[in-house]
Every structure is written in C-alpha cells, then in structure tokens.
Hints:
Blueprint: E1 3-10, E2 21-26, E3 31-36, E4 42-43, E5 54-60, H1 62-68, E6 78-84, E7 90-92, E8 95-98, E9 101-104
Parallel strand pairs: 1-7, 1-8
Antiparallel strand pairs: 1-4, 2-3, 2-5, 5-6, 8-9
Amino acid sequence: MTGLSTHVLDAVTGAPATGVLVSLQDASGTELSTGTTDADGRITSINDFPLLAGIYHLVFDTGNWFSDNDIKAFYPEVDICFEVDDPTRHYHVPLLLSPFAYSTYRGS
C-alpha cells in the first residue's frame, strides 16, 4: 500500500478530532489536495496520486476546529513538514492535539 494518511486525536479528551480540514502541500506551498477528518479523526488517503520523493507539508486547520468546538487555543494551524524518501511505501502522519500543545510522529 502506498500513499498518505493521517489521524487527529484530541489529546485532552482522548476522542477523535472530527471535521479537521487538512491540506497537502508541496515544498513551495502549492496545495496538492485536501481532506477532512472523518468520525474516527482519520483521513485514510489524502492523495489520489503517487507521492514522489521530496518534501511535503500537511497543514491542519486547527483554528477553525477549536473555534467550532468552543475551545480557546493557541495554535490556529499546525504545519507538519516531512520528507518522502521511498515513493513505494505508505506514509502515516498522526497529530495529537490539545489547545496549547501538539505532537506528531511517523506512524505505520
């Protein structure tokens, strides 16, 4: 399986962050595709095209999600920059989100 997926978890409640808009961008900031997290906080495939080797950004619209959920927060967006080094593999980039901190890691 190849491609790119993400999962956003509200680290305060432990619940999925449903309805977060996510943009996939190339290194120059050009938007390549978008998606919105589902009821489980996931986007199973944000791209419908092969990712070539290179630098990409996943930009999470956390400001609107926090606002929609009446949460006062510090981060209006989260930009996770990552590198695809092997286009034949699947990349999973999760986001653990809270109003005043976030964390990410390379998932499987």
